[in-house]
User: What shape does this take?
Amino acid sequence: MEEPAAPTETELLQRITQLANDGSQDELETLVESLPASDLAFAVAHLDEAEIQAVLGTLPAEAAAGLLSQLSDAQAAGVIAQLTPAEAATILQEMGTDEQADLIQELDEARGDAILEQLPAQEASEVRELAAYDDDVAGGLMSREFIALPVNATVRDVLVEIERALESMGDGDARYGYVVDDQQRLVGVLPMQNLLFVRRSTVVRDVMIPEPMTVRDDASLDELSDVFESRAFLGIPVVDEAGVLRGVVQRDTVHDAEYEAAESDYMKSQGIVSEELRTMPVWTRARRRLSWLSVNILLNLGAASVIAVFQDTLQAVIALAVFLPIISDMSGCSGNQAVAVSMRELSLGLVRPGEIARVWLQEISVGLINGAVLGVLVALAAIVYDGNPLLGMVVGVALFLNTVVAVSIGGTVPLVVKRLGFDPAIASGPLLTTITDMCGFFFVLGIASTMLERLAS
Amino acid sequence: MEEPAAPTETELLQRITQLANDGSQDELETLVESLPASDLAFAVAHLDEAEIQAVLGTLPAEAAAGLLSQLSDAQAAGVIAQLTPAEAATILQEMGTDEQADLIQELDEARGDAILEQLPAQEASEVRELAAYDDDVAGGLMSREFIALPVNATVRDVLVEIERALESMGDGDARYGYVVDDQQRLVGVLPMQNLLFVRRSTVVRDVMIPEPMTVRDDASLDELSDVFESRAFLGIPVVDEAGVLRGVVQRDTVHDAEYEAAESDYMKSQGIVSEELRTMPVWTRARRRLSWLSVNILLNLGAASVIAVFQDTLQAVIALAVFLPIISDMSGCSGNQAVAVSMRELSLGLVRPGEIARVWLQEISVGLINGAVLGVLVALAAIVYDGNPLLGMVVGVALFLNTVVAVSIGGTVPLVVKRLGFDPAIASGPLLTTITDMCGFFFVLGIASTMLERLAS
Assistant: This one.
């Protein structure tokens, strides 16, 4: 069934493993640095453990860190998990604290701790601090690599400080200095170009921009999006309750987090609750998927118990059994469309979780139209199949009613779930299908049971 | 059921409409410019037609354009559709050509043409040119606002040209000039800071960076992502087959497009194929959703016809009817998990569409584990419900087998659909559920029919 991968990709994999096996450090480094992120991710997903260890063992630590930063957190953590804590720590030291924290969060606790013990104490404690934040608030997205300048320092001091900081900060943004008082509270921002034309004896306070815009460390991703959407900032300083400077959030980091949130909503709606790669151990993958599936099967059994109640009706009019899964599936489809529209309007800020009645009114008109169309279609199918117009009427009316129920629930359930403080992307689908299944089975079999004599004749 | 919206939001809406009705241009402009994008989008979604017209009528054209640029394309197009072509054109003239093209693409053709006729001929033809590109290739994402410099011009000429260009280009990036030969082919890039310390008589050729990195106008979003992922560029020039400079793609535009693609995959997987807002006309919304639902109901009827074939078996063992929707739903869930993982691995570049056998092998092991667990659960439920171990065995084995089928189909169908050149986000779900429904009904009823005598006793 499989056709050979395009020659360039096979060649790429061969070339990487060959260079790693030959220990050709320089050539391998040049190749890895020239590859686009998607090719690197592809290669890592296709090399086996020994090959990846050979590649990382051959590359200098900085290049290995560069390679890992091009991968998703879960993929990078999968690679790190194959190294000894000491090897992992050597590579981690070449990363920014925010990347380190993201990786440590992905690893199991014992392994994460083992790696942190190999890092310098100061660095390890900064990583622990960042890893303690949720990864969708400013504190979890900020970088600790920034240039902090004392407000009373002179430009001469600053130039020395910058030179020192540039050595240690790696990828951080050196275009701005963040000016703090002796309590480490942020009091200003200093665009570095302001230093070009002032005397060395000038005090920072006199060249900085005072009272800069900041975000709190618990600011949500939505708030950060709004800030970067409306201003051309490349980064924004993060402060805690006391106004102490904790870090800087970069524009690109926020963009990446928005992308991941959108993608993760899709994954969660389908029951993939945490990032899964097929290169992960099969037991891990099976267990994660099962935790969602087993809740679903219980909900499904509950909904199907409605059928059991009407077993006699079904026995009398067996043709109804053909239409039960259709009613269930189609109502799920209509309802999930409404869920998707609500999820999107929530994420765009077009509705707030309190506006349940408003959304319901806007949704029900679509439900009436589409319910009527689908009801007629399924009624016609039933008449063709069974030759009984009454059967057609029963399933048609049931699907009409249940489509109205499905869009009503589908449109509002994400708002309700969000108001209750749960994640609407995970919970909306299962809640929706359980309720619409129960109602759908009840409509079909309940209506049928009221006219059983005429139907069964 | 609805609780009042938070006071600040109601107040915000009241304040906007009041300022618009009073015609308080300056105050309204200040308010609109101070609002974060999400509040503007919220307000536009909550004001009625007359109120929006009043707001846009009060704002100067530039501020109105700024407001629209904070909205999604569909929301902005909804607002534009409420204006006369002349009013719309006045506002559009304050936008970049790429934003204009995005809006025109959202409008129906007649209205779009009417607005373009009101624009200067040169501008209208540029918008038409951009609107002709797909919106997920470099040509559709690029901006036409850039500074083009003749390679033989002197720095003196350039400074005049820049001053002229800055007036007309609005939001464009003026940090780079793009150097072209007399055929308009791109031959270099000129960072504007290079102009600071050279003589006015120097020729552009001598200060530009020759042979800059470019992308082709048909480059995909993935290629653009790779470029911006691996380089710190803020923008990259777009050239056609002949090397002629067509535009510049900005980093932020690519980030936004990636976000929209991820979100749109989620929407499409749930049957919302083009952007829908609840403020759109109800008939439009109903029609768009129906086009997907009506394909689904046909597929559903096809799958359910398997039940019809086994109607006698079902009549004899009516308890099976309770489990048919459970088998259908649970297989759909397991299969959709596999679809989601494949969609993500495709978008991360971890698998290529040709690797069907490899993905299938990685997926089937999860299917065997989860199929066994779910099969046992449903078998126990059947035994509790009916007291018949044989019934438990039938539905348990059927769900086990069908889970294996579902993950096999789910994991591979996005790759197959993509190889065939269709959109896996739209087509994978319906194909998956149709096949798994058919197989699931066949397994339950087929196995049951082979042991009908013992089951029915």
